[in-house]
C-alpha cells in the first residue's frame, strides 16, 4: 500500500462530504419553502419533463394495501386554459380575487383515482401531494393543492377517464411567504401585509396531546 494511501482516501472522503453538504437541503428547509403559492412568475414556463420528474416520486410511496389507485394528468402551458377557469384560489382572501391577473400558474398535475375513493384513498392522496410538492421545491419550484374545483367541467375539458380528486398548480413562485407561530386558540387565517403572505401555524407544544 502506498504511504499516502490513507491520506488520499481521507481527502476523498472529506471532499465528498463537502460536496454533499452543499448539495443536500434538509427536510425542514424544504418544508418551510413549501408554501402554498397563488402567484407565479408568468415568464417561467414549466416543462413537461419537470412535471414528469415531480410525478416520478409516486412509485416510491406508501399506499394502502399497495393498491396505488392514483393517476396523474400532466397539464402544461398549451393546455392551461383547460384548467384555469375551473379552479378557485385563496378563499380566505376573497377580496383579492386570486390569482392576480398575469400571475396565473401555467402548469398543473391533476390527480385522479381509478377507484371510488374511500378514506385510505385520501390518505394516499395526501402522501402523494406532499411528496410531489417537496420534489417541486427541491427543483426550485412551488405549488398549490387545489380541492376547490369544478370536477365535472375538468373531466370534460381534459377528457379525463377517471375522477379527479385534486389539482396541483406548479410554477416559479412570484410571492413572498412567511410562517408565523400561533397558539391553539388563535386565529388561523392567512393574511397579507406589505406584499408578504403570512401563514399562521400552531406551535408544536399545542399540537401534542398531554
Ligand atoms: C387538501 C387541501 C386542499 C386545498 N385546497 C385549496 C384550494 O382549493 N384553493 C386554495 O387557494 N388553496 C387550497 N389549499 C391551500 C391551503 O389554503 C393552504 O395549505 C393553507 O392556507 C396553509 O398555507 P401553507 O400551505 O402555505 O402552509 C388546500 C390545501 C390542502 C392541503
Question: What does this entry show, briefly?
Answer:
The protein has 210 residues and is of the alpha+beta class. The protein has helices spanning 5-23, 27-33, 48-55, 119-138, 151-158, 204-207, and strands spanning 70-75, 107-113, 142-146, 163-171, 176-182, 191-193, 196-202. Helix 3 (48-55) packs across helix 4 (119-138).
Number of strands: 7
How big a fraction of the residues is strand? Answer: 15-25%
Strand order of the largest sheet: 1-2-4-3
The percent of residues in helical segments reads 25-40%
Low-confidence stretches: none
The SSE order reads HHHEEHEHEEEEH
Largest sheet: 4 strands, antiparallel
CA radius of gyration is 21 Å
Count of individual helical segments = 6
Features:
single chain; 210 residues; alpha+beta; four-stranded antiparallel sheet; three-stranded mixed sheet; 6 helices; globular; binds flavin mononucleotide
Description:
The chain is an alpha+beta fold and 210 residues long. The protein has helices at 5-23, 27-33, 48-55, 119-138, 151-158, 204-207, and strands at residues 70-75, 107-113, 142-146, 163-171, 176-182, 191-193, 196-202. Strands 1-2-4-3 form a 4-stranded antiparallel β-sheet, sandwiched between helices. A 3-stranded mixed β-sheet has the order 5-7-6. The chain binds flavin mononucleotide.
How does the SSE layout of this entry go?
Blueprint: H1 5-23, H2 27-33, H3 48-55, E1 70-75, E2 107-113, H4 119-138, E3 142-146, H5 151-158, E4 163-171, E5 176-182, E6 191-193, E7 196-202, H6 204-207
Parallel strand pairs: 5-7
Antiparallel strand pairs: 1-2, 2-4, 3-4, 6-7
Helix pairs in contact: 3-4
The structure holds flavin mononucleotide (FMN).
Residues 35-36, 38, 88-90, 144-148, 190, 199 line the site of flavin mononucleotide.
Amino acid at each position: 500500500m502506498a504511504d499516502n494511501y490513507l491520506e488520499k482516501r481521507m481527502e476523498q472522503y472529506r471532499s465528498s462530504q463537502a460536496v454533499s453538504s452543499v448539495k443536500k437541503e434538509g427536510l425542514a428547509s424544504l418544508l418551510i419553502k413549501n408554501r402554498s403559492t397563488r402567484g407565479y412568475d408568468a415568464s417561467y414556463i414549466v416543462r413537461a419533463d419537470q412535471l414528469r420528474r415531480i410525478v416520478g416520486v409516486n412509485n416510491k410511496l406508501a399506499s394502502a394495501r399497495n393498491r396505488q389507485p392514483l393517476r396523474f394528468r400532466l397539464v402544461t402551458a398549451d393546455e392551461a386554459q383547460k384548467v384555469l377557469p375551473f379552479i378557485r384560489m385563496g378563499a380566505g382572501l376573497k377580496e383579492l380575487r386570486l390569482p392576480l391577473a398575469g400571475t396565473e400558474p401555467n402548469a398543473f398535475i391533476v390527480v385522479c383515482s381509478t377507484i371510488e375513493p374511500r378514506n385510505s384513498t385520501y390518505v394516499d392522496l395526501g402522501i402523494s401531494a406532499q411528496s410531489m410538492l417537496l420534489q417541486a421545491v427541491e427543483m426550485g419550484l412551488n405549488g398549490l393543492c387545489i380541492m376547490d374545483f369544478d370536477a365535472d367541467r375538468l373531466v370534460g375539458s381534459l377528457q379525463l377517464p377517471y375522477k379527479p380528486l385534486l389539482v396541483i398548480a406548479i410554477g416559479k413562485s412570484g410571492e413572498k411567504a412567511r410562517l408565523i407561530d400561533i397558539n391553539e386558540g388563535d386565529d388561523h387565517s392567512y393574511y397579507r401585509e406589505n406584499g408578504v403572505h403570512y401563514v399562521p401555524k400552531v406551535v408544536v407544544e399545542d399540537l401534542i396531546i398531554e
